[in-house]
Amino acid sequence: MAGSVAVRAATPEDEPQVVALWHACGLVVPSNDPVADFRFARGAPSSDILVAADEAGRIRGSVLVGHDGHRGWLYYVAAAPDARNTGIGRRMVDAAEAWLEARGVVKAQLMVRETNRQVIAFYERLGFAVTPRTVMAKRLRPEP
Ligand SMILES: CC(C)(COP(=O)(O)OP(=O)(O)OC[C@H]1O[C@@H](n2cnc3c(N)ncnc32)[C@H](O)[C@@H]1OP(=O)(O)O)[C@@H](O)C(=O)NCCC(=O)NCCS
C-alpha cells in the first residue's frame, strides 16, 4: 500500500527533489533537460507535474501529465527506488488519468523506451495495451 503518501500538484519548491527522483529512477537522458521539463510542464495550462509526498515531505513518486488538445500523455512516471511495489506507481498513473478525465481527455498514451521494456508489464497491469505505431520525431531546437 502507498499508505502514507499524498498525491498533489508539484510546487516550485519540489523541483530539486523531483529532478533527483528522475535521476534516481534512470529517467534522465542527455536529450532532455529535467529542470526545463519540470518548469515547462508546470508553467503550461495543459500540463502539470503530480507528485506523491510522504508525511516527512519527501517526494516518493511523480508523473508529468498533459494533453495536446486530443490525447493525454504521461511522462516521468516514477516511484522512488526504495519504495517500489508499494502502490506509488499505480497512484501516480491513477492521478494522471483523473487529471486528464477532468479535462475531457478520453485516451491516455505513453511511450516506453526500447531500453526500458520491462516496464511494459507494469502498464499492462494498469490496463494499458501495446498499440503499435511508428513514432516520428524532429527536434525543433538543438539538444541541451
Ligand atoms: C514503473 C514504476 C513506476 C512502478 O512503480 P511501483 O510503485 O513499484 O509500482 P506499483 O507498486 O504501483 O505496482 C502496481 C502494480 O504493477 C505491478 N508491477 C509493478 N512493477 C512491475 C513490473 N516491473 N512488472 C510487472 N508488474 C509490475 C505490481 O505488482 C502492482 O500490481 P497489483 O497492484 O495488481 O498488485 C517503478 O518501477 C519505477 O519508477 N521505475 C523506474 C522508472 C520508469 O521506468 N518509469 C516508466 C517510464 S516509461
**In terms of structural class, how would the helical and strand content be classed?**
alpha+beta
How many strands?
5
Beta-strand percentage range: 15-25%
Please list the strands of the largest sheet in the order they lie side by side.
1-2-3-4-5
Q: Give me the number of helical elements.
A: 4
What is the chain-wise order of helices and strands? EHHEEEHEH
Q: Which hetero ligands occur in this complex?
A: coenzyme A
The separation of the N and C termini measures 38 Å
Helix fraction by DSSP (H/I, runs of at least 4): 25-40%
- Rg over CA atoms, rounded to whole Å, is 15 Å
Mean pLDDT: 96
The major β-sheet equals: 5 strands, mixed
Poorly predicted runs of 5 or more residues: none
Overall, the morphology is globular
Overview of this structure, please?
- A five-stranded mixed sheet has the order 1-2-3-4-5, sandwiched between helices.
- It has helices at residues 15-24, 34-43, 88-101, 120-125, and strands spanning 6-9, 47-53, 59-67, 72-79, 108-110.
- The chain has 144 residues and is an alpha+beta fold.
- It has four helices and five strands.
- Helix 1 packs across helix 2 (34-43).
- The mean pLDDT is 96.
- It is globular, with a radius of gyration of 15 Å.
- Bound molecules: coenzyme A.
- Coenzyme A binds next to strand 4, helix 3 and helix 4.
Give the secondary structure arrangement, pairings included:
Blueprint: E1 6-9, H1 15-24, H2 34-43, E2 47-53, E3 59-67, E4 72-79, H3 88-101, E5 108-110, H4 120-125
Parallel strand pairs: 4-5
Antiparallel strand pairs: 1-2, 2-3, 3-4
Bound molecules: coenzyme A (COA).
